[in-house]
Every structure is written in structure tokens, then in C-alpha cells.
């Protein structure tokens, strides 16, 4: 499966109003389309809130794409390792986003060539995975809006929702109490501070919210502070989880072995694609740690269906207005798509309206 040609592109799409922390927040999607023997594979990564997608595209165009033209697309792991060798002196930054776009496209192409879904290509062990409602709980929402949107998830069959905290910790107990009162005791509530808190404020908030039976406390402090995560895990009753800003399996190792995280939440774009996500899943599985991948629902459904460590997949429908595919969700579980590849396709209208490069 010789790689014959690769197209790169950038889309800038609006953030969901229900999630945005500021006006004009948006996602930039950095895409790659790989052509081989009459087939195409599509991959994309994203930068959220601000611009930066054209910087990733420049790295693709100037370095990574020329380096893999003519290679065998049937071996994405080999190509991933070659890209890592080319870029490892850059550390972990935009190179991981660029690698992810290519790696996801190669896995899509490989699965299509074999007539498999992405999940089946990796090693599928289940036909559906649990999902929780997310992305409709921004800190700027009123309590009434927060309750209404959370209730909408429950009414549509979800048994778990995630609420953002940390923007104004003094207001968070009342906001969470209102959601718990509305949803009842049988719905799981996760909270996510997006790294906004100090250790002491996270400890205080966690203790205040414990009475509401919080299922997990996500990103309470900055992601590099392993010690604070470990101490919070010791002193709070709810599991401490995180990892969406970790960029490799190596960065997860100490957090897993030292139980700083009860569940890992890697982002497939941040870690460099499917190849590295599989390594992280194996790490979690080997150490009895849960797997609950961040964002990227349409891709993560496939990955989560290949490991026994899956606890939940985040259902964050930020791409639904721009793609042709829709997930089938029943009673809080998403059916793993069976079409060849990952099944994600952006509409022509999306390219016409939102393409910037």
C-alpha cells in the first residue's frame, strides 16, 4: 500500500456555546488525507480555544509529509516510529498533533483496505461502550441552564454527566447541589476543574462536594503536579483522574504506577495518534487503571472497544454539525460503528465554510 499523495488542510469551527469560556472560542482541526491504491484515509487533530493550526500544517508540509511519501501505509506503527525519530528533539508539542493527523489517517486507510472498522482492525472485544454526557456544562452557564442541559442528557438515556468546576469555586457547591437535586441519586456526576485549582482549593472543593457522591474529580490541578494528584487521591473519597494534556505513554507511567490517577484520560491528538493510544491502553490494563479517553468521541469509541479497562467514553458532540456520521446511543451506551475505517467524514459544506488553509 504505497503512499502516493497526501493532502493537508485546516478547518476553524466554532466552539459549542454551552462549553466556551470566552466569546469567539473555536477549534482548529488540522487534517490529512492519505491516498493509496484508490483508497483514502483521513485523520485530523485539533487545537482548541485559539489559533495555531497553520503551524501544525507547516510542520506536516515541510517535514513529515515528504518523509513518508512512498512508504507502505499498511504499517502505521513503523511510520509513527519514524516520525518520532524525526521530531523527538522538538519535545512534545505541535509535532504530536502533526503525527496524530497522519497516524489516524494511516489507521483509517489500513482498516479500509482490510474491510474492517477501526475497532476491528485494532482488536475489538465489545460491540458497545458506556458514554457520559459532556460539553454542555460550561462555567458561564446559569444554574438553570446547567440543570436543563444535564437533564436533557439523562432524558435521552445517559446515566452519567460531567460538570465543569473551578471557574468560581465559591459557587460550585450550589451548582453541583442543584444538578444532583434535579437528576436524582442514581445518575453519576463527574466534575472537571480543567487544572484551574491549587492543591488546597482542590482539596477544599472536593471535600465540600463529596456529599453529592461525585463519580470522579478530573484535572483538579495542573497536569504536571503528580504529587498533588497523589495527595488528593489519598485525602478525597472520589477518584482523581486526568491526562488529557499528557503527550506520551511515558508521561502516564508514574501517574499509573503511583496511583496518582485512578483512570487515565489521554487525548488521541495530544499523544500522537492511535498507535500511542494503544500503548497507553495496554499500560492502563496492565496496572488495573481505568481508561476514559478525552474528547474525540467518534475516534475513541473504536479505541475503547478494544480494552477491558474502559470505564466511560466522553460524549462531546462538538463535531456533529460538521460531519456526516452519527453515533447510535441507547441507554447510555454507544454502538461501535461497523463501517470500514473510523467512519468520520466532514461535509462539503464544512470545507466550503470553515477551511482556512
Automatic annotation (TrEMBL):
Residues 143-239 form the Mandelate racemase/muconate lactonizing enzyme C-terminal domain. This is Mandelate racemase/muconate lactonizing enzyme family protein. SMART domains: MR_MLE. Its cofactor is Mg(2+). Pfam families: MR_MLE_C, MR_MLE_N. It comes from Citricoccus nitrophenolicus. It comes from the Bacteria. SUPFAM superfamilies: Enolase C-terminal domain-like, Enolase N-terminal domain-like. PANTHER family: ENOLASE SUPERFAMILY, MANDELATE RACEMASE, MITOCHONDRIAL ENOLASE SUPERFAMILY MEMBER 1. Keywords: Magnesium, Metal-binding. Coiled coil: none annotated.
Amino acid at each position: 500500500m504505497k503512499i502516493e499523495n497526501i493532502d493537508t488542510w485546516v478547518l476553524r469551527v466554532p466552539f459549542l456555546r454551552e462549553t466556551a469560556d470566552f466569546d469567539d472560542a473555536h477549534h482548529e482541526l488540522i487534517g490529512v488525507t492519505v491516498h493509496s491504491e484508490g483508497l483514502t484515509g483521513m485523520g485530523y487533530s485539533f487545537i482548541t480555544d485559539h489559533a495555531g493550526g497553520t503551524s501544525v500544517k507547516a510542520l506536516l508540509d515541510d517535514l513529515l509529509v515528504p518523509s513518508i511519501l512512498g512508504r507502505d501505509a499498511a504499517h502505521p506503527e513503523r511510520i509513527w516510529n519514524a516520525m518520532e525519530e524525526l521530531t523527538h528533539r522538538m519535545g512534545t508539542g505541535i509535532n504530536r498533533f502533526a503525527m496524530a493527523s497522519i497516524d489516524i489517517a494511516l489507521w483509517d486507510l489500513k482498516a479500509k483496505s482490510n474491510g474492517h472498522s477501526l475497532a476491528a482492525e485494532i482488536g475489538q472485544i465489545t460491540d458497545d461502550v458506556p458514554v457520559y454526557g459532556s460539553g454542555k456544562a460550561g462555567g458561564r452557564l446559569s444554574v438553570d441552564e446547567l440543570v436543563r442541559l444535564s437533564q436533557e442528557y439523562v432524558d435521552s438515556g445517559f446515566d452519567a454527566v460531567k460538570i465543569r468546576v473551578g471557574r468560581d469555586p465559591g459557587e460550585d457547591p450550589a451548582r453541583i447541589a442543584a444538578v444532583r437535586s434535579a437528576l436524582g441519586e442514581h445518575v453519576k456526576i463527574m466534575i472537571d476543574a480543567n487544572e484551574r485549582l491549587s492543591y488546597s482549593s482542590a482539596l477544599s472543593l472536593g471535600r465540600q462536594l463529596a456529599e453529592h457522591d461525585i463519580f470522579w474529580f478530573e484535572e483538579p490541578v495542573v497536569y504536571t503536579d503528580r504529587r498533588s494528584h497523589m495527595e488528593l487521591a489519598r485525602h478525597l473519597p472520589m477518584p482523581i483522574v486526568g491526562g488529557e494534556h499528557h503527550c506520551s505513554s511515558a508521561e502516564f507511567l508514574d501517574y499509573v504506577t503511583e496511583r496518582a490517577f485512578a483512570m487515565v484520560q489521554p487525548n488521541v491528538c495530544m499523544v500522537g495518534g492511535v498507535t500511542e493510544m494503544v500503548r497507553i491502553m495496554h499500560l492502563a490494563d496492565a496496572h488495573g487503571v481505568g481508561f476514559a479517553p478525552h474528547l474525540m468521541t467518534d475516534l475513541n469509541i473504536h479505541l475503547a472497544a478494544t480494552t477491558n479497562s474502559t470505564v466511560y467514553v466522553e460524549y462531546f458532540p462538538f463535531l456533529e454539525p460538521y460531519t456526516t456520521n452519527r453515533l447510535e446511543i441507547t441507554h447510555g451506551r454507544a454502538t461501535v460503528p461497523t463501517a470500514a475505517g473510523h467512519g468520520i467524514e466532514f461535509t462539503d459544506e464544512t470545507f466550503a465554510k470553515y477551511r482556512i488553509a
